[in-house]
Amino acid sequence: MTSWRRWLKRHSHWLPGSLRGRFVIIMIAGVLAAQVASYTIWTSQVRASQLEQLDELSSNMAFSIASTMKFFRSLPVDYRHIVLDQLRSMGGTRFFVSVNERRITVADIGSGRKRGGGEQRTHHSDPAALD
Question: What is the largest CA-CA distance in the chain?
Fold first, then answer.
C-alpha cells in the first residue's frame, strides 16, 4: 500500500463517509484558502499605499520647512521676532522657532494680573508698555 492509502485508513474516521460530506469539506478548505490569499494581497496593498502616503507627506513637510526657513532667513534679523509674534497671535505654525541660529528674546509679561485666569495674554515688544 502506498503511504496515501495508509494515511487515509488511519484518519478515515475524521472524514465524512458520504461524497456530499467530503465535497463540503473540500469547499470549506477552498473558501478558507481564498480568504487567506485575498487577505494577504489586501494587506500588502494597504501597506504599500501607507508607505506611499508617508513618502508624499514627508516630502511635502520638507518643502514646507525649507520654504519657511528661506522666508525667515530673507527677513532682517531685527524684524524676525515681530513676524514670529504676529504668526503666534494668528495661530500660525511654530516649528521654525527651533531652527534659528540664535535665541530670539521675547519680553515676558511677568506675574501681573494680565497673566492670570481666563484673560487674554498680550505680547509686547516694549517692556515699559506692560506697566
Answer: 104
Cβ neighbourhood burial of 84 (10 Å; 0-12, 13-18, 19+): buried
77 and 71 in contact (C-beta within 8 Å)? Answer: no
Q: Which domain range does residue 34 map to?
A: 19-67
Number of domains in the chain: 2
pLDDT at 36: 97
| Per-residue cell: 115 | 497673566
Query: Would you say residue 126 lies in a domain?
Result: no
Could you tell me if 57 and 36 lie in one domain? yes
Predicted confidence (pLDDT) per residue in 49-94, tens digit: 999 999 999 998 888 888 888 888 888 888 888 887 777 777 665 5
